[in-house]
Specification:
By secondary structure, this protein is an alpha/beta fold. It contains 16 helices and 13 strands.
């Protein structure tokens, strides 16, 4: 479907391939639309046949036997200039880094290489040769409110433009409708565009099975799949709070390092993402306990935690996109002290406080905690995002704290 094939990464990846020498890596969760995007990028170059999937036996054999020339046999025609190819799930090849390095070094004058995968593609110095300097990594996230609203899917605004537009944005019924759809059906294309909660339930089971019973088995040495499934079932009720690995260890009857390893594996497979507490120079802040959020948040029953997770998914995309586009190094954190004052999110720019973001289901005025940390951290921006605004309809600023309806804030992401 063309509406799904054009994504917010499309223009940037095409720019990179035309202007820079290197491979474009696209990673992200299972079923987020990487293959559809990749095929769209091939079609744009008239190279539809140049799609290679490591999970397809004939493709796998061709890559192994002819590592430098496998792509020539399927070429329908040799166009002027470079040939664009896609390598999907190539990270499952045990020697994938060495293979890509050799392919790039031998054929970079003839090829534009796009690599996609549902595992982390940015761990490039663990055995084998480094790919450093040979690729640009892009992260594909589920659909966000802003991407659904944009016909061209171009939603990545430079940071300064983002904050300027937030001050003047006006909500719309369409933005509210898109937010409701994502709240109900997730941002993953298949359930989202099916508009069916029944389809969502079927998809969720299949998605979890793919990650836990295929990817986890293929890409890790973990064999206690049943216990990992139990771990996954315990996570929704822990979203929004600092995660106690010790408590999970006791529930599962395994040791601390085992649970920690399982969580890291699920993060590498894009089932979840973690954010760390930000301390900086603040005294008496939490420094170790991470928070966990799910890319598919529809299984979270508690409304506050579910909304916080939805905002987290949007901010996670924003930080990675700003970093991928080269605007700076942005990372997502939270801040909490030992007196239990907390702000849900802190965006750091080059490890310095940049924007505080508090997510509230309902509110009429800023939470005192965001005022407290805004004064001490001196972040450039402080925003409270409210799902059900009380006594206000549009974005306004109150004593340097921006109060904004969720539909308006998320429409920019």
């Amino acid at each position: 479907m063309e509406i799904i094939g054009v994504r917010y990464l499309t223009g940037e990846v095409l720019r990179f391939l035309s202007e820079e020498s290197g491979m474009a890596f696209i990673s992200g969760p299972r079923q987020v639309g990487k293959t559809t995007l990749a095929r769209h990028l091939l079609a744009a170059a008239g190279a539809e046949s140049q799609y290679f999937n490591w999970d397809v036996e004939s493709h796998r054999k061709a890559i192994i036997h002819y590592p430098e020339d496998f792509w020539r046999g399927l070429s329908e025609r040799r166009a002027a200039g470079k040939t664009r190819i896609v390598l999907d799930e190539i990270h499952k090849f045990p020697r994938w880094k060495r293979f890509l390095k050799g392919l790039y070094d031998a054929q970079s004058e003839d090829l534009e290489v796009i690599v996609t995968g549902s595992g982390r593609l940015d761990i490039y110095q663990r055995g084998g040769d480094s790919l450093f300097g040979r690729y640009q990594l892009y992260h594909l996230h589920p659909f966000t409110v802003g991407e659904m609203l944009s016909e061209e899917r171009t939603t990545v605004r430079p940071p300064q433009q983002f904050w300027q537009e937030l001050e003047s944005t006006q909500g719309s019924k369409q933005a509210e409708r898109c937010l409701q759809e994502i709240e109900t059906l997730t941002g993953f294309p298949e359930p989202l565009f099916s508009s069916s909660e029944a389809r969502l339930r079927c998809w969720r089971l299949a998605h979890e099975r793919l990650v836990l019973r295929e990817d986890l088995r293929d890409l890790t040495r973990i064999r206690e799949i049943g216990l990992v499934e139990t771990l996954v079932s315990l996570l929704p009720e822990r979203v929004g709070s600092p995660l106690s690995v010790n408590a999970l260890r006791e529930d599962l009857g395994v040791n601390f390092l085992t649970v920690q390893g399982w969580l890291e594996a699920l993060e590498r497979l894009y089932y979840l993402f973690k954010i760390r507490p930000y301390s900086g120079r603040l005294a008496r802040t939490l420094r170790r306990e991470e928070k966990v959020y799910l890319y598919d948040f529809t299984g979270i029953s508690q409304p506050g935690a579910r909304f916080e997770n939805l905002v987290a998914v949007h901010l996670h995309k924003l930080c990675q996109a700003w970093t991928d586009w080269g605007f700076g190094v942005y990372s997502l954190h939270y801040v909490r002290d030992r007196e239990k004052r907390e702000v849900d999110f802190l965006i750091a720019e080059n490890q310095q406080p940049y924007a505080l973001v508090e997510a509230k289901v309902a509110a009429a005025e800023p939470n005192p905690h965001i005022r407290y940390f805004a004064e001490r951290l001196k972040a450039k921006h402080a925003v409270q995002v409210v799902r059900e605004p009380q006594r206000f309809k549009h974005t306004f600023i109150s004593n340097r704290i921006t109060m904004t309806p969720a539909s308006e804030f998320l429409s920019l992401i």
